[in-house]
Amino acid sequence: MEFPNALQNWYLENRRDLPWRSTRDPYHIWLSEIMLQQTRVEQGLPYYTKFIEAFPEIEDLAAASSEKVLKLWQGLGYYSRARNLHETAKYVAYELNGKFPGSYKELLKLKGVGDYTASAIASFCYNEKVALVDGNVFRVFSRLKGIETPINTTEGKKLFKKLAEEALEKVNFDRSTYNQAIMEFGALHCKPANPACEVCPFNEECVALRTHKIKDLPVKLRKTRVKKRYFNYLVIETGNEETAIEKRTGKGIWHGLYQFPLVETKKKISEKELRQNELFRQYIKEKDFSVEIFNPEPVIHKLSHQHLYTTFWRVQVKEQENTVPLESISAYPVPVLIQNFLNEYLPEDYK
Fold first, then answer.
1. How far is CA 54 from CA 198, 236, 257, in A?
2. Long-range contact set of residues 274-278: C-beta below 8 Å, sequence gap at least 24
3. What percent of the chain is predicted at pLDDT more than 70?
4. Model pTM score
5. Helix (H) or strand (E) holding 308
6. What is the model's pLDDT at position 1?
7. In this structure, what are the phi and psi dihedrals at residue 213, rounded to the nearest 5 degrees?
8. Average pLDDT score over residue span 110-130
9. 193 and 240 share a domain?
């Protein structure tokens, strides 16, 4: 049996019942695909449900404040996706009268939409003849054909795109079903770890299985060194239960989210070194204040290219400029690192 047909049979028996599979509405498909970039379905599904409930139509998302969008996104990571999502929603709602572009080429013009997302929307909504290549597709083809070309190189991307297009040419049923099938097969069956090779419908033709290279494929080059950063958050406590927060700006991580005043250092520091820090003295202008470390051992928060060694310092002062009530801080969108701290730090009635 041809690969696409065998794949379809597997899919019809094993596919998950996911809400975005029961619609061809481009708003719903686009939202799900943006959320599932670098995110597992199990993690993304609750966020998708929350967004659809909060923003039933793209006009609702467009009209929302950036703080509300980021707050609903909080915990999903890669916050540039949320910012691009919001910008694209406003563009589609206000410039395109709420109608998504109707082709792969036009979809590529939207902010935050690359080759894969444009292909997914064009395929699932319009049944356009476009091949999808995501991490699951890379894995299936690399193992099935024993391909050791790194998937994160120009050569590798072109090769796997060509293989996906050749397979699509052989499809004699709904092309969107085929695209869903190969991604689902990679997600549920040909998994990164512990794939179900013994009951795989393609185990007789799988080169990686025959050559004992399942664990080695696909190949991905490591390019970026992990950078260590040392964050010292100042949890300022005033006598009237207020604290200071600031909005992150610039092009770094967590743009648009809120945080406690931050003193970044080159290494872990002591209380004495913190008190002597110039930026600390810019934040804390009173002469009479106290400092207490909240977590003696730094919390290590791992991002894709950097590890954050984070210490929270409780700083008690009489007065402080630009404060907010401590009971309202949960309304602000913050990084998961800070949310985890708040879960431990805040009294129950403030959470």
1. 44, 33, 20
2. 274/232, 274/313
3. 100
4. 0.90
5. strand 306-316
6. 65
7. -120, 20
8. 96
9. no
Give the pLDDT confidence score for residue 250 in this predicted structure: 82
Beta-carbon contacts of residue 34 (< 8 Å; ≥ 6 apart) = 81, 84, 85, 112, 117
Distance CA 78, CA 348 (A): 29
Burial pattern 245-267, b for ≥16 Cβ within 10 A else e, equals beebeeeebbebbbbbbebebee
Burial of 31 (0-12, 13-18, 19+ CB in 10 A): buried
Catalytic, out of 33, 128, 184, 237: 33
- CATH number for the domain spanning 249: value is 3.90.79.10
- Concatenated DSSP letters of 257-287: -EES-EEEESS---HHHHHH-HHHHHH---S
Same domain, 167 and 285: no
Report residue 321's pLDDT band, with 50, 70 and 90 as the boundaries: confident
* Residue 87 bears catalytic tag: no
**Which amino acid appears at position 227 of this protein?**
K
Same domain, residue pair 139 and 39: yes
CA distance 117 to 258: 29
The CA–CA distances, whole Å, from 244 to 229, 235, 237, 292, 337 equal 22, 7, 8, 16, 17
What single letter denotes the amino acid at residue 9?
A: N
- The CATH number covering residue 187 comes to 1.10.340.30
pLDDT digit string (tens) for 126-170?
999 999 999 999 999 999 999 999 999 999 999 999 999 999 999
Mean pLDDT calculated for residue range 200-221:
96
